Amino acid sequence: MDIEHKLAYHCAPTFAGIKAANLLSLEKFLLPDIRERFEEYNVQFNCRGIYFDILRESRERVLLFVYRRVQLWEELCISCNESFLKSCGYDDYSSIDTVLGRLREKMSEGGFPHEIGVFLSYPLEDVMGFINFKGKNYKCSGYWKVYGDVQGTVKKFEEFKMCRDHYISLLESGMSLVQLLEAA
Considering Cα of 45, then 46, then 49, then 52, what sign does the dihedral take? Predict the structure, then answer.
């Protein structure tokens, strides 16, 4: 699967604006000029509110965060999300850049902070359930493990899948990722 298909497969809900962010791990050998490619995407799509940010990098892989900046900041500023993140060490809540900077710091410390689910538009109830139950005792799973509203979340999962299938279909019909995002 080429880089455009991987991005569409994993990030279609974000590209479509039905989810604030997605995260994916990419093997560097797929794209030797990976940093330059995402800098180009940022030049092309930041004006549309879509950002590409490498959260962590190793010799073999990058962990790419694709997000809609305004939508993400709005979600992070919901009072329960903000309170939760502050309790997780996000003390400086002055801007999205400071909050994302703290996330990047936590990622660089080698661990994988479970609060990242809030950044990925997961319901706080599910993020907290995952943390409290250590990933066990969930009611169902799909794009994430569900501890709260199963019915509503399953509908979201179906919407995400339909979106992903649509974007992949557009790529397979000959559209490029640039054309796809310009139409989004």
Answer: positive
Q: Which amino acid is located at 25 in the chain?
A: S
Q: Tens digit of pLDDT for each residue in 141-179?
A: 999 999 999 999 999 999 999 999 999 999 999 999 888
Q: How many CB atoms lie within 10 A of CB 90?
A: 21
- Note if the pTM is more than 0.90: yes
* 3-class SS string, the chain: CCHHHHHHHHHHHHHHCCCCEEEEEEEHHHCCCHHHHHHHHHHHHHHHCEEEEEEEECCCEEEEEEEEHHHHHHHHCCHHHHHHHHHCCCCCCCCHHHHHHHHHHHHHCCCCCCCHHHHCCCCHHHHHHHHHCCCCCCCEECCCEECCCHHHHHHHHHHHHHHHHHHHHHHHCCCCHHHHHHHC
Judged on CB neighbours under 10 Å (0-12, 13-18, 19+), 117 is buried
At 75, the amino acid letter reads: E
Note the residue count of the chain.
Answer: 184
